[in-house]
Amino acid sequence: MKWFKNNIEVITGCLLGLIFVGSGIFIIFNSSAIVNFKEIAVNKLHMAQLLDFISIYHYAFIKILSRYIHSLPLIYAAILMIYGLGFIYISRLLKKTTQFDQLIAYFYLLSAFFLFLFTAVLMFEVYDIYTIVYFLSFLILTFYVLNRKRLNQDYRKMHHIVLLFFFSVAYILTQNRIYDRLADNTVTPLDVMALNFFFILLTVMGLSALGNYIFLHRATKADSTDELSRVHRKKRDRLVSDTINHQTNEAFEQLSRQSLKADEKVMIGLKKMRLKFAEWINLKDEDIPAWMRKPKWFKFFHIELLFGTMILILTFIELNNRSVLFNVSQFNVVKMQYFYEWINLAGLLLMVIGYLFFTALIHFKKRGYFGQLLTVTFLFVKIITAFYLMLFKGINLSLFIPPVIILLVLMITPLFFYHLKKQY
């Protein structure tokens, strides 16, 4: 494990290189099929074994590639392979010397940008104009990585919430679009799953390249002067945060005479709104009846476990219902939508398990806060999107039946808003 941590940037670079080289080899072996691609009636095909499934997915990949590199597939393959070999060479260079770390860091940054851009171009095939929202989200993420030191590190939770907000909006808009197109039969579930495979692969590659940039950029700045400035920044950020947390007009007047960071100005605005709202409500402890007060033994951890377990059970039941599909000896590609729903439910189930894991980790180990925030945000957005599809797009397009989705909304909503308010 220690060796892995010490060589993570080298391993990441080699993996990225191998993926690029493997993609080039795949294009070379299928160049003839890409150039001479012909549509076939996939809706009449049947799958009886794993090999049939792989063949149909292979057809979907060739179909996507033929739209973008139809004319010169071998040239694109050569470019990918050269780029991949460049990653491998850079990784070996990183292992030998730190002389070129800064230059290599910017190479990874540019690679991440182009991977995000290519992801947006590829996803335009299904998501249309809404792909721009995803690309803007990736740009905001890149901007945050480049400027995170100019922000108050005590407000990392707010930074992550803003990033999650943009990606959540992108997800809701694109899911709304994709279900419209599925309902109109302008795309098939097979097309969506094939494109989602590329989306996940390219996104992971882009994030990996961005992660390598962060690691190498930190390494190039790790001198004594930077250590002193980092300590100074921590003291300064903590002082400003403590002053803001006083929530008094005097504290805000004191801060107004200082030079503040962008996120600190946002926090002051939120604190002022909260103060005005509290003054307007003017609710005292004695105003709350004894029977409405929280028992001393009660912890929200109990609600998290209860609701999380119920969401897990309901998701597992729905996933099990879709699993009947695999007991059929053959199923038509038209029924691929059931498999598409099964994949969505399987991903949802993994997120519920992740949420419960991070909840227990926080309770017993006092760590894993941002993992919990990520998983509960994903669950909230996923369930709310399914609820919206049920209301406005029809029951057939929702992952759950109406009573179940309503129950899920009632359980996930308080969990989500509690974690928005929770101090990390």
Automatic annotation (TrEMBL):
Phylogenetic placement of the source organism: Bacteria, Bacillati, Bacillota, Bacilli, Bacillales
Transmembrane segments: 6-29, 74-91, 103-123, 129-146, 158-174, 194-215, 300-319, 339-362, 369-391, 397-418
Keyword Transmembrane helix recorded: yes
Keyword Ion transport applies: no
Keywords: Membrane, Transmembrane, Transmembrane helix
Record organism: Macrococcus equipercicus
Name of the featured protein: Uncharacterized protein
